[in-house]
Amino acid sequence: MCSHGDASGNLEEDWHEPPSVTPNVAKTQWEAEAAQTLLSSELITSNSNVDNNNVSLVLAAKDLKERTDETELSVESQMQNFMLCLESYAAIPEYALSEEVFNVDKPLEAVRLGAELPSKTLSQAHTVGNKLLLTITEVYSPFQFWFQEAEDAAMLRQMSYEMYNLYNDPHGLSWNLALYFVRPGYICAAYHECIWKRARIINVLSTNEVTVYCVDYGQCAQLTTKQLNFLHKRFMEQPAISMRGTLTDVYPLDYHWSANATLHFKRLVRQRDLYAIIKDTDLEERILFVNIFEISDFQHSISEQLISARLAGFSRNYSDETIKAHNGRRVRYIRERLPSFDMLEQQLFVADSDKYEEMFDNIVYNSQFYKHFVAPKLTNPFRYKLEEALANWLEKFKRRKELEMSSIS
After folding, report:
1. Measured between alpha carbons, how far is 234 from 358 in angstroms, rounded to an integer?
2. What is the DSSP letter of 276?
3. Which tens digits make up the pLDDT trace of 172-226?
4. Which of these, 38, 75, 133, 234, is most buried using a 10 Å CB contact count?
């Protein structure tokens, strides 16, 4: 068992030995000219019939072939040009495919590719000592959960109602998401838990399955492409309202939060109105560190209930004495920082897996990682995104540590 409850809360003092421990290929001159000819022609933008399109394409292909024959090319280039000629007989050749081509499948008022939905920022209302009324919508652990503020509830209900009416209008346009737009990062509408939600596509698992992140709920979900619609532009006017939260005054009794501790926490907080006091903030990561209560008298906190159930220890890291001893800085536990919210929202971390948690313990409790800022080299090739995310996190963490040290000196 870890003994995290010392007064200093220092990361080094809290550390214990972990258990067992297709880039694009440059086109030839003739290919580029042919592609430009096809892109600028009326084959893409006009309403000409398919027969006229094919005639023009065949002429373009013959012209390309004649010029290619006059040029000395490598075997590889000749093969590429041959395939290009074959593609030219299709209604729309592969090299001419672009968002403009597929916009015919997208409603005019739908969100474009590359559009980003900003997140709700911390404001003056989110300062230490302020009180909140909130609803927790998703939990990874007591150190990582997502919530909505009560002030946003009416707006979210109205948005869901409008999305339902839009997508269920039998006389309206088809808003089903076209296959071309099913790609990571695209903002769309997802039908999840019987309601339409704003979502960002995370991964494309197959031609008919994806994982999405529901931006107003902090939830990741695996859905079919039939559950995805284009998002109307008007639903981009409000920022994503899901907030990031960390429970205060507790620490896990092991290297990471046990499944029982997290389950008990979920039972105490999910889908109910709760009251909270802000005890710390992280403006860069948009995290609120809150002490949570079931009723408005702010007695008998959720943290106290976890401690009474012997599922958590009492942390002194929020006490004035401990903060003063660390030059006005609150020391945070390693598992308070990792996995980061960004990692979880991109689904780089497998939830509800003790084996995965143990693997992660072996990384983050290694002194090379947290003392010397050495990024891990993971042997599993399918975890390269996690490896990259950890390396990026370490760089950011190192810069913050250097700033803290310079401010102290």
Report:
1. 44
2. E
3. 778 999 999 999 999 999 999 999 999 999 999 999 999 999 999 999 999 999 9
4. 38
- 209-214 and 250-251 strand pairing: unpaired
Residues 305 and 203 in one domain: yes
Question: 143 and 82 share a domain?
Answer: no
274-325 pLDDT tens trace: 999 999 999 999 999 999 999 999 999 999 999 999 999 999 999 999 999 9
> pTM (2 decimals)?
0.76
Question: Do 286 and 161 have their domain in common?
Answer: yes
320 shares its domain with 376: no
My answer on whether 252 and 279 are in the same domain is yes
Q: Burial of 160 by CB count in 10 Å (0-12 exposed, 13-18 middle, 19+ buried)? A: middle
